[in-house]
Amino acid sequence: MRKNILVIPGDGIGPEVTTWGKAALEKIAEIFGHDFIFDEALMGHAAIEVTGNPLPDETLEKARNSDAILFGAIGHAKYDNDPSLKVRPEQGLLKIRKDLGLFANLRPILLFDELLEASSIKPEILRGTDILFFRELTGDVYFGEKFRSEDRNTASDLMIYHRYEVERIAHKAYQAAQKRNKRLCSVDKANVLESSRLWRETVQEIAKQYPDVETEHMFIDNAAMQLIKNPKKFDVVLTANLFGDILTDEASQIAGSMGMLASASVGESTGFFEPIHGSAHDIAGKNLANPLASILSAALMLEIGFGLKEEAKLLVDTINEVLKEGFRTNDIADQNTERYKVLGTTEMGALVLKFLSQKS
Amino acid sequence: MRKNILVIPGDGIGPEVTTWGKAALEKIAEIFGHDFIFDEALMGHAAIEVTGNPLPDETLEKARNSDAILFGAIGHAKYDNDPSLKVRPEQGLLKIRKDLGLFANLRPILLFDELLEASSIKPEILRGTDILFFRELTGDVYFGEKFRSEDRNTASDLMIYHRYEVERIAHKAYQAAQKRNKRLCSVDKANVLESSRLWRETVQEIAKQYPDVETEHMFIDNAAMQLIKNPKKFDVVLTANLFGDILTDEASQIAGSMGMLASASVGESTGFFEPIHGSAHDIAGKNLANPLASILSAALMLEIGFGLKEEAKLLVDTINEVLKEGFRTNDIADQNTERYKVLGTTEMGALVLKFLSQKS
Ligand SMILES: CC(C)[C@H](C(=O)O)[C@@H](O)C(=O)O
Ligand SMILES: CC(C)[C@H](C(=O)O)[C@@H](O)C(=O)O
């Protein structure tokens, strides 16, 4: 198979981890005889530094012409500390999501048995958890009109949804639920928000077309609680952009660490694959970041982007093996024990490649 | 001390649990020789049924004339299942918050040692946690303009903040932090939302007036994760209405159960005290609800509303004792063991009163 892959390392720990996602794809291409052609582009703070623009035209152009995108992370402390800056790294990520029509963000909560103890949640609560989040990605308060009064004393963002936006992601989520455990939980705040009432109404309508799937509606506050209390009760979770942002980060504690979670954004054409973690400036450049989420993003690209199930499985199995052998990055090592071999970013990435090589 | 207390039982399990919050106040009055005069009023579905209005004028009038309000819960399945209904129970709660100027919602995460094991989170992660949330309560997307297009296909809610709204709650939160561990974490989504940028800017300004308090700014997605990963790192958490709604429900898992958390809403005049749990229609009327959050709401009324520290402490200590003796309601009983004496709502409420009587 021949594919054009665009790599966008981004900011903070983005470049360090994306190196290994890309390397894993190269190794897979070698093992299975695929032809993956790589290009690279700038986004975020990295792009502002060079071009003044968080999403340069050239990046968007390259993105449009690629079959899939492997992305790292975005954001920089400078902007976080100065809310008044007008040009901001995150605008690049939001714009590429919108321009490529990436309306569905899939975030599987993949639980490695070996990491059950790395979580702050009790293993007996976690065991057996398998959740697939569908987060809407191109609507909501993220893209509604922003306003700041001239005296700077009033600010607003419009939380807005159109019925078709809810419909198209609901269909995707229901179709996924049909292939899984046939349960779908739609999360909103319909007791307060009009946009959530539209969300709930629309999901209720779409649900009728999938009578084999059991639908539940839950308020976001309750969902944030249930996710920790009893994660096993969830199968597919369907939710809006902002609520999905919050719930999936929270759910990273189920997987033991944010450093283990990947996401796939799909929609109209090119798929976009990225770790769910952020740019983590505090550990950037220190060889401390966990490269496994980027490698798992590569696995999602293989499976969801290219339909290469066997290849994706090989990556996931290899990571499992590495963990079984007791290798950990800092974020997933249980601090209280001496039983793990704790590796840096480079060492962990290289080890996964070595294990992969031994399989070919 | 002479005080007029308005009891608003509300919907679902509201009446069952509020009975015990009120009874606890009566017992405290008896023990300490106070004069608490009670009145009762309707709100929510209960009020719609009788008057067609979720917040009848009479209730608002009584509320204005009371020194404190003890509230139960709000909401009904009928409205949750039918997003198109125009008159909704929750409107009553939102309107009373707004009309009484209850802009600061204090939610202490009180950790009973005895309940460390009732949580889904590991006891060693929880031990020592002590968080006080300040949730803004009369602004945000809760009160911004709502819109539904004529064809019903577009819906929106305006997420909006004014600087003074952020300032007044920030002052309250900083003042509380000064009396606690001198750390304040302000939670927003300033990397995406303009209203959050105003929030962050304003908190940065106010922070300068409290140089003895250490300020941290955190994005809501990260906060939802950190709260589970390392709850001990938080002291005072300051956040907007919507984010506070989500985070405090999530934090209920720290306390073992939502059935153990109370909140105080304060602002311009009369204080409003309520459990953070909802109306829980599924268990309403079954003698299954936990009355302790209502009794703890009464304790907050004594402490925050009336400045009666000793009285409040007696209630909390008594609950501690009841738990130490192995008594539990269903929600806080560890399902896997036989070691607890599991009680219904009435039995638990009566037991707390009995323990209280023995102290007087
Ligand atoms: C960086 C930020 C804009 C982004 C978001 O909020 O969508 C991130 O948190 C994510 O979840 O991908
Ligand atoms: C019932 C609902 C309107 C309310 C809210 O969202 O504020 C509740 O969840 C709460 O937290 O008090």
UniProtKB/TrEMBL annotation, chains A, B:
GO terms for molecular function: 3-isopropylmalate dehydrogenase activity; magnesium ion binding; NAD binding. PROSITE patterns: IDH_IMDH (PS00470). Gene3D superfamilies: Isopropylmalate Dehydrogenase. Keywords: Amino-acid biosynthesis, Branched-chain amino acid biosynthesis, Cytoplasm, Leucine biosynthesis, Magnesium, Manganese, Metal-binding, NAD, Oxidoreductase. It is found in: Cytoplasm. Its cofactor is Mg(2+); Mn(2+). Its EC number is 1.1.1.85. This is 3-isopropylmalate dehydrogenase.
